[in-house]
Amino acid sequence: MILDTAALLFAAVEGPRSRQIELTFKAGCLALNRVYRFFDDKAGTESASLLPAEAEAEPGRADFEAAYQDLCGRGLELNQDRDAAWARYRELRTRYAPALMFLSRLTMAPGIKTAV
User: Fold this and answer.
1) In terms of domain of life, where is this protein from (predicted)?
2) Considering the domain boundaries, does residue 25 fall inside one?
C-alpha cells in the first residue's frame, strides 16, 4: 500500500518531494525485491509456477483516474498531462509489482486490493 501510494504521488503530484518519501519508496522496492529473490531461490520453484494462469487485476486506468480526481479534490497541484502521469505510475509500479505478486502467492495472502 505504501509503495502504490508513493508511486501515485510521484506520478500525479507536481512539485518537490520530501527526501523521506523518496527514501521510503526506494528502500521499500529494494527490500521487497530482496525478499522475493531470497524466497524465489529457496522455494526451489520458478516464480511463474506460483502465478495464476490469469494475472491478478492490476490497477487500471479508471482506478488511476479516480485516485487522480481524489487528489485534485484535495487541492494538490497535479501533473496536467494525465497520460504522462499514468505512464509514469505504470513504470514505477514495475519496480515492485512482480515481487509483490510472487510473495502474495508464496504466503497464500488473500487477494491484493491496490491502493489506486
Assistant:
1) Bacteria
2) yes
